[in-house]
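hey so u asked for the seq, here:
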Amino acid sequence: MIIFKFTKTSTSALAAHVDTLRAVTYLVRRANIDAAYSQGFNPHIELGFSPPLPLGVESYAEYVSVKAEAEENLLERVNAVCPQGMTFTRMWTVNVNLAAKITKAKYIVTATGIGDVVSQLTAPNYTLVTFERDKEVRKDVSARIFDVVRTGTDAAEITLAVGNENLRPDRIVNQLMRDNGLCGDYSIVKVDSYVGDVPTDEYLDELQAARCACEAR
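ran it, structure tokens below
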């Protein structure tokens, strides 16, 4: 199995998860990667993605697994057919389900005044208010907020849960701005993800090193 790391920026950040799946399927075919297909009446390339992003959030830390063997110049071949805003930056030959392993992600948030109010996320029992079927839903999400760092008046870094306990960064930012009367546009960029407390790249490096050591014996 091959795991690729890729970016989703610019217009690619506006693609929904299902559209990203279609785009990666297309470029795997265009790059002539000998990938495995599912069985059944409608065979498709077997892909596994890291937890999906909210629409409009850019990322420099997305991952996709492809059931295929490593080949020469794979990164170059894939990048030659990538759409705008999508770039494949690294690859590993390891067998792991990252969607089940990645538990949190770090985001850089930029918005007027956000740095001066982001510390509110560290309050005990911080409550996120959403509306589902026209009903107000209040949830204590403090256990899903792992780190909050003010990096400037208009910028902050927040580390939130993903996966089964996913906490959407856009909902957090929208609430902070609404509660504090902040106006204007904002941007959210995912810059890292973690398996436990270990950055995903480091986790994959360790897996690949262990695999190479076993093969060398």
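Residues 200-216 form the longest helix (17 residues). The chain has a mean pLDDT of 92.
lmk if thats what u needed
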